Amino acid sequence: MSDDAADGGGGADDASAENQPHRFDRLPATAEERDVPERATREGVVEFWHDRYGVDPSVWDGYTFWEKGAGKVWAFAGDLPSPVEVEAMGMTFLRTGGEHWKPTTDAVQRFGRHATADDTVIDLSRERAARFLAGEDQELDWDGDWGYLIVRHEYGGRPEPVGVGLFVHGELRSQVPKGRRREL
Amino acid sequence: MTDGIDDPEDVLGRYEGLVDDVEAFREACARPLPAVVRVNEIKATPDEVRAGFEEEGISYDTVDWHDGLLRLPDGDPGHSWAYVHGWVYGQEEVSAVPALVLDPEPGERVFDPCAAPGSKTTQLAALMNDTGLLVANDSNLGRLSALRSNAERCGVSNVVVTKSDARNFSLKPFSDDEEPFDRVLVDVPCSCEGTIRKNPDALADWTEDHVHGVAGVQKGILERAIEVTKPGGTVVYSTCTFAPEENEAVLDHALGNSACDLVEFDLPLESRPGVTQWQGESYDPAVERARRIYPHHNDTGGFFCAKLEVTA
Questions:
Q1: Distance from CA of B252 to the nearest CA of A (A)
Q2: How high is the ipTM of this complex?
Q3: Which of A111, A173, B130, B190 is geometrically suited to a Cys-Cys bond with A166, CB 3.0 to 4.6 A?
């Protein structure tokens, strides 16, 4: 099971009484429509990707967002009647449980190409990208934002996202899940 | 001639009456296949993958019948940036055939009842441009875990994963009015002789009892697949076995018991028609519209593929 996998309960999460860990519930459009406290909203998710990474809101046209397990948001390219009890839908997408929202590796690899911000998207050399992929933390001279960055490198003729890095105190900490790490 | 094949029963010998060149068939089955990857067009184009492989010093050969397949003479691509980025999926080239025959379109409702570990599921998602509804089902939790991991690496976002016996699959979770599917890819579990070139142990546990048992399961899965497809919709039935009991006999059963016709279709590979006679049994002549792909004709694995139209 990868660190990104959204099931398994997550012992530290204290799900509200209304959050059902075995099923998917569609996120409410806005806070006014929210009936589960603390649940993220569609509006909030779209704003997060726009404000932090410069992703145009139109990228999410046709997508619905779902929560299964407290704070674990999934993106699905379609719609179904909510709630729904299935093994998985779409992809694991965003963690909204903590103080800072955190995109998943899947989300960044799939949608990171739409990011246009220059203070939260960082391009590494091939050598540094390999160390990042291996799970290594590295010193980094970066004058952009602190927090969760989209980490890319040049591959196959374009900048391609590798995963999520946490930049703090001059250090880029690899957030690549253990099951996705590779020594290349 | 079949050195290296663990085949105490000489299973391949039972198909000699079906093939045009027994020696070439035998030799091809004994020859290993190169690793092949399919470009995952959700994330990259064939040009981008080729450029990436060249940057990494990974040699590749193109496949003349499909731009999105690359043969890798040096073997497994698992340790490459192309794999890490989900730009490629390791998939034997002949196994890319049934999803192409199903030919799903963006926005459709598509069902993959025997989906794990996900080579054809991820291919279907790419053909659908990652839109619409793709329901990927399997009965085994361990295999579903592999399916999920492969779908995630490929960036598939239009898939819904379910766990059930495909013979009893329920439409209930997918729409309030149990709307049927446009297309279904019935790639059933089978006795797998066609994979002998990838897996020399494929025939070690082969028994005729298993063939008959699995044929019963295949009939049940195909019957349910036809039931959950709308009239006019398409069902593709595929296996990686040469056994008529699991191929034409299953189609014959469906033609007699379900609302469907077999339709002609083109393949970019050399193939042979389905067989209408086998060990004293006769099948509906329409089973000739199915296609048999033998290892010695295109230097691939073996495969069977049929296209059905669901009738009212």
A1: 33
A2: 0.92
A3: A173
